[in-house]
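subagent[fold] <- orchestrator: predict structure for attached chain, return tokens only, no commentary.
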Amino acid sequence: MKAIKFQFLKSLLFITLALSLSGCGHLVSNAKQEFAEDLSATILSFDDPETIKKGVPAYLILLSSMIRGEPENADLLESGAKLYGAYASGFTDSAESKKALANRAFDYASRAMCIRNQQFCDVKKLSYFEFEKLLATVDKQQAEHLFVFVSSWAGVIEANSSDWNAVAELPKVKAGIQRVLDIDETVNNGNAHLYMAVMESLLPPTLGGKPALAKEHFDRAIEISRGHNLMAKVLYAEKYARMLFDKKLHDELLQQVIDADVGPEDQILVNTLAKQRAAELLLEADDYF
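subagent[fold] -> orchestrator:
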């Protein structure tokens, strides 16, 4: 889940004023990006997920209107991809809505990546081996952009998990996440490790799963975030400890989340959601184990 930034009313007024000016294309572009970044930051710092759930849809539409006005602005497209992807994975109630929002997030991320590197424009048509060769050309400066792209792709697969055509693309996503880890594991506060940990936890050991590798990625994600990303511990408990029926580890991780504070400003929303999920998982633990 997979990042959002904001200082809201000030930026909204700024963008309204900027858009009313004529002949100031660069100013408008900067204003739009500042608004998108400030919007993301404020959402991440909110401690009431219900308010975010009810309030953000209007700003998704606003952000889409900005992108429509500047369809070649890669930074703006990435901001749209992150916000749509976050809302799709964390807040929408219906399966159809989740699919639509995840698809839009991936569309924006794909267009941004294509603008930055034309070799990515038709990436879905590439074979796995062609895609691997392309990934090898991505350097550290592009690591964050690649992460936005592949994590948005993962969101589409998650939203369409009953579609085998979508699921068949998972190896490419995994290869993309691995490339991010190879060139800069700290991108997005170590969340590439979290994506990989979850993917390595999809299957139990008897079916070819790699729980030891998943554990390494969970531990590294927590280490890189200095323990501030509580969702990493929740997923550690839910995906790894439950798979191995390790109730002691499961309960310890979830209790650590419940006992922790909400962390730094840019983690408040995610950690509030993590605390809610930890309480739910702990409540049903006796039934599961």
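orchestrator: received. Logging for downstream: The two ends are 26 Å apart (CA to CA). Residues 187-289 form one domain.
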